[in-house]
Design goal:
By secondary structure, the chain is α/β, with parallel strands linked by helices. Helix content is 30%, strand content 27%. Helix 3 links the parallel strand 4 (61-67) and strand 5 (90-101). It binds S-adenosylmethionine.
């Protein structure tokens, strides 16, 4: 599994805690964040790299994770290059797990990626998508607190994020 734009490994650590060990590789252009990921996720292999130019062979991975990465890239050409590399390093029959938001929460360095934009970027692929709530960190804290019925969990939280499983047709 390749976590493209793994950052400090926050999402990867959460996923692995739920799934159990997996053979994971992470890449991110930010060496400082990547070092944190490498320290906390073992076993794992981590490389400083830009997602638009990956040094992996064609078809090297079963699954590629893109968790709030494309929304961190403002430039359309750069987004397309990352998606092209994602598709190149994915083995035939493999899949992309994409999690992102369509509405910009206000960060100047982010640009929302709507489901529609994701479908355009992954043109020709089969996409199963569902809207999900934002605030994953809050959801995790609530789950850990053992109080799933707190007033917070009953708030109608807008489903501004989408989670998609993307495969080649
Ligand atoms: C919001 S963080 C998400 C980190 C991680 N995916 C997670 O969910 O915990 C976005 C990450 O995308 C990375 N990123 C930005 N541009 C990138 C690019 N061109 N190639 C790969 N990663 C990139 C950033 O360095 C940052 O770590």
């Amino acid at each position: 599994m390749l976590d493209l734009g793994c950052g400090a490994g926050d999402s990867l650590a959460t996923l692995l805690a739920a799934s159990g060990p997996a053979c994971v590789t992470g890449v991110d252009p930010d060496a400082t964040r990547l070092a944190v990921a490498a320290d906390r996720i073992r076993p794992g292999t981590f490389f400083v790299a830009d997602g638009s130019a990956l040094a992996f062979a064609d078809g090297a991975f079963d699954v590629v994770l893109l968790f709030t990465v494309l929304s961190s890239v403002a430039d359309d050409a750069q987004r397309r290059a990352i998606v092209a590399e994602t598709r190149r390093v994915l083995r035939p029959g493999g899949g992309v797990l994409l999690y992102d938001f369509g509405v910009n929460p206000g960060g100047s360095e982010t640009r929302g990626l709507s489901e529609r934009q994701a479908r355009i970027l992954f043109d020709g692929c089969a996409i199963e998508s569902r809207r999900v709530t934002p605030l994953p960190a809050l959801a995790r804290r609530l789950a850990r607190s053992g109080r799933p019925r707190t007033w917070l969990s009953r708030l109608p939280v807008p489903r501004t994020h989408h989670l998609s499983w993307i495969t080649a047709r």
